């Protein structure tokens, strides 16, 4: 018996010691119907996102991962809208089970949606507006970093990256730092920036804290040549909790634009010196009491967002109350499987100035695989 | 009892080399597997390998008493295999799940003891389903779903094989 087993070792070992090269394809996407109240706003359907996930495993330690995205179905010259972009593209080297080195186009690990944005993972047809105007999802920049977990504390994970910085030139009053992102396209590396996250996970619970720090001057003669000239500091905290069919999540973030006054003087904008806000969301899986044996889900949810991209303004800049936004969303998410979803929601958009307020009805579907 | 007693490490090496029946069979590091067996069944337990269909089942015993069975499985997470071990006691109750190798950068929370603990004591009478008797972890959904399905399948197989005497 022993010899036969030993011969098995001889036969089988080489096949398993050799690294298996393998290519994996996946993807996610979402299609939206939105109808906004008010004049000149007919209902609209849009293939919002179509994303191909492509990964390749070179050996036990080295893997490439990428996401290629088409937004709004197509891109045509002379027409507004539409985008083809790489959302992620990086090499991972697994140095140890708890330590991976990463380099390439990466997602700053800030908040919930920026890293986990597949449509079945969040309620509401569109992402929270907070995750557009405060945390500018999908935020990606080129850099290097480490990620892993802390052996001493079960459930504690971290990620830390050094990436190219933002450009103050793109900042705006309405969307904060959003258009300051460079997204891997001939990006200036004048202001290398640090971003990272600590998170703690337990069954049903995840809490995290994230940051970004870096200059934004891009060696502009007025804003300064220093690596950290015209710095921004972003801090954010988030939590997700699930118990007995109830799901709660919340995110807060605050962004300090230290030299907002100089940036506004230089580019003629009214960028706030502080951008801040957050949201809380509660959801309940209605199928838990109605069909306890089902693996399908029907979430009823309500989300309340409050944020102001001019939470503070530099001296001499008038504050626009319309930027102090409050958005309440109620809706349903039906998930036949954990990775597919049909959504519907109703949003009430309000702001402190009470101008341009509206209600929006949305329907959508999403998938990931 | 004709099977010779081999050191656990040698058996572990042997087992690691045996292909499991998952589509992408992956080896478990022998030391890792041996440590897992030692943790679950105590040091010095006798390990025999039983072949059932194309699967390799570990039979754990001490003297004349059966301690339980264990099997190594693989499921695919986002893009990498997750190699795990399912151990059962002689009454087909799940003793524990161990993640032997986790290869992806995200979703590694499935290796954390507070999550794996949820499987202890389960039998085939339990649903072993995410959102029912197994709580998920945000941001690790794919791995949570994959490992839960893999554990359910292996527990069902071990229970069925034990029931019909294919392993005993």
Structural notes for this entry:
The complex is a heterodimer of chains A (369) and B (168). With 369 residues, chain A is mainly β. Chain A has one domain (22-368): Porin. Chain A has four helices and 16 strands. A 16-stranded antiparallel β-barrel of chain A has the order 1-2-3-4-5-6-7-8-9-10-11-12-13-14-15-16. The radius of gyration of chain A is 23 Å and the shape is globular. Chain A starts with a helix and ends with a strand. The model of chain A is unreliable at 1-18 (pLDDT under 50). Chain B is of the alpha+beta class and 168 residues long. Chain B has one domain (8-163). Helices cover 29% and strands 26% of the residues of chain B. Chain B has helices spanning 8-17, 30-41, 113-116, 141-163, and strands at residues 46-52, 55-62, 65-76, 81-88, 94-101. In chain B, strands 1-2-3-4-5 form a five-stranded antiparallel sheet, with helices on both faces. In chain B, strand 2 and strand 3 (65-76) form a beta hairpin. Chain B is globular. Chain B starts with 7 loop residues before the first helix and ends in a 5-residue tail after the last helix. Mean pLDDT of chain B is 87; it is low at 16-24. Classes of the chains: A mainly beta (369), B alpha+beta (168). Chains A and B meet through helix 1 and strand 1 of A and helix 1, helix 3 and helix 4 of B.
């Amino acid at each position: 018996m022993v010899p036969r087993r030993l011969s098995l070792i001889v036969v089988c070992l080489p096949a398993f010691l050799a690294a298996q090269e393998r290519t994996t394809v996946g993807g996610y996407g979402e299609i939206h119907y939105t109808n906004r109240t008010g004049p000149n706003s007919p209902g609209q359907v849009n293939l919002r996102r179509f994303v191909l996930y492509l990964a390749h495993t070179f050996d036990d330690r080295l893997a490439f991962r990428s996401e290629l995205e088409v937004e709004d179905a197509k891109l045509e010259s002379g027409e507004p809208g539409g985008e083809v972009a790489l959302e992620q593209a990086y090499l991972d080297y697994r140095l140890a089970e708890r330590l991976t080195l990463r380099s390439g186009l990466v997602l700053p690990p800030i908040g919930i949606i920026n890293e986990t944005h597949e449509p079945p993972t969040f309620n509401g047809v569109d992402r929270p507006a907070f995750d557009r105007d405060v945390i500018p999802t999908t935020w990606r920049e080129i850099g290097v970093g480490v990620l892993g977990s802390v052996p001493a504390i079960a459930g504690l994970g971290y990620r830390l990256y050094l990436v190219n910085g933002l450009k103050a030139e793109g900042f705006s009053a309405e969307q904060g730092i959003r258009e300051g992102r460079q997204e891997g396209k001939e990006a200036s590396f004048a202001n290398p920036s640090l971003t990272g996250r600590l998170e703690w996970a337990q069954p049903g619970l995840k809490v995290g804290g994230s940051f970004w720090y870096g200059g934004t001057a891009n060696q502009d003669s007025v804003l300064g040549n220093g690596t950290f000239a015209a710095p921004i500091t972003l801090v954010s905290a988030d939590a997700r909790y699930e118990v007995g069919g109830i799901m709660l999540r919340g995110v807060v973030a605050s962004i300090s634009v230290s030299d907002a006054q100089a940036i506004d003087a230089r580019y003629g904008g009214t960028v706030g010196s502080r951008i801040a806000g957050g949201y809380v969301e509660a959801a309940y899986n209605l199928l838990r009491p109605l069909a306890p044996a089902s693996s399908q889900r029907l979430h009823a949810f309500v989300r309340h967002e409050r944020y102001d991209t001019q939470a503070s303004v530099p001296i001499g800049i008038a504050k626009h109350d319309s930027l102090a936004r409050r958005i309440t969303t109620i809706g349903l998410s039906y998930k036949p499987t954990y990775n597919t979803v049909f959504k519907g929601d109703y949003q009430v958009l309000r702001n402190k100035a009470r101008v341009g307020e509206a209600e929006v009805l949305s329907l959508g579907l999403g998938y990931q695989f | 009892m004709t099977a010779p007693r081999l050191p656990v490490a040698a058996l572990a090496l042997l087992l690691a080399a045996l292909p499991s029946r998952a589509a992408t069979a992956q080896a478990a590091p022998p030391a890792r597997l041996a440590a897992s067996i030692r943790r679950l069944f105590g040091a010095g337990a006798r390990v025999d390998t039983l072949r059932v269909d194309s699967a390799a089942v570990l039979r754990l015993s001490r003297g004349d008493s059966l301690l339980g069975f264990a099997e190594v499985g693989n499921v695919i997470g986002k893009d990498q295999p997750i190699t795990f071990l399912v151990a059962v006691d002689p009454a087909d109750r799940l003793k524990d799940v161990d993640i032997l190798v986790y290869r992806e950068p995200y979703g590694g929370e499935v290796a954390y003891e507070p999550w794996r603990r949820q499987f202890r004591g389960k039998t085939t009478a339990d649903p072993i389903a995410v959102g029912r008797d197994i709580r998920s972890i945000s941001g690790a959904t794919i791995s949570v779903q994959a490992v839960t399905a893999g554990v359910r399948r292996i527990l069902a197989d071990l229970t069925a094989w034990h029931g019909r005497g294919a392993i005993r």
